[in-house]
Amino acid sequence: MKLMPDPLETEVQPGEASEAFYARALPRIRRFMLGLALPVAVFILLRFGWKIGLGFLVGCAIAYVNFYWLKRVVMGLADKVTATGKRPSGAGIVLRFMGRYLLMALAAYAIFKISPASLYGLFAGLFLPVGAIMCEAAYELYAALRHGL
C-alpha cells in the first residue's frame, strides 16, 4: 500500500489532498459525536445520577438524528437545485425543518413530565454536535500544522 503517490507516475495537484481531507469532515464529525457521547454519559451518570444521565443520552440521540437529518436535507436541497436549476417546494422544506424541532419539544415534554431534573441532561445532550465540531476543528488544525493541508 502506497502512502504517498510516486511523483514520476502521476502529477499530483497541491489542492487535491486538502480537498479529499475536508470532504471527509462530516463523517468524522459523526464519529466524534459517537465518541463523545458515551464517555460523557458515563461521567454524567456517575457524577449527577441516572436521571440526568438518561436525559443526556436522550439528548445525544436526538442531536445525532437531527444532525443526520439536517445533512440529508441540505444535500438533497443542493442536489435538487443544482440538477434542475429551480427552487424546491418551500412547504416540504419547512415541514421537515419543523419536524426536527417538534421531535425535540416532545422529548423535552416527556422528560419534564417524568423527571424535571432530567431536562438538564437533555439540554446538555442537545449540544453534542457543538463538542464534535470543536473536536473536528482541533483535528483540522492539527492536520494543517502537521501535514500542511
Briefly characterize the structure.
This protein is mainly alpha-helical and about 150 residues long. It has 6 helices and no strands.
Q: Which structural traits does this protein have?
A:
flat; mainly alpha; single chain
- Largest β sheet strand count, sense and barrel closure: none
Number of strands: 0
Order of helical and strand elements = HHHHHH
How many H/I helices?
6
Strand content: under 5%
Topology at a glance:
Blueprint: H1 14-23, H2 25-48, H3 50-84, H4 90-114, H5 118-126, H6 128-147
Helix pairs in contact: 2-3, 2-6, 3-4, 3-5, 4-5
Give a written overview of the molecule:
It contains six helices and no strands. It is an all-alpha fold and 149 residues long. 16% of the residues are buried. About 3% of the residues have low confidence. Helix 2 packs across helix 6, helix 3 runs antiparallel to helix 4 and helix 4 packs antiparallel against helix 5.
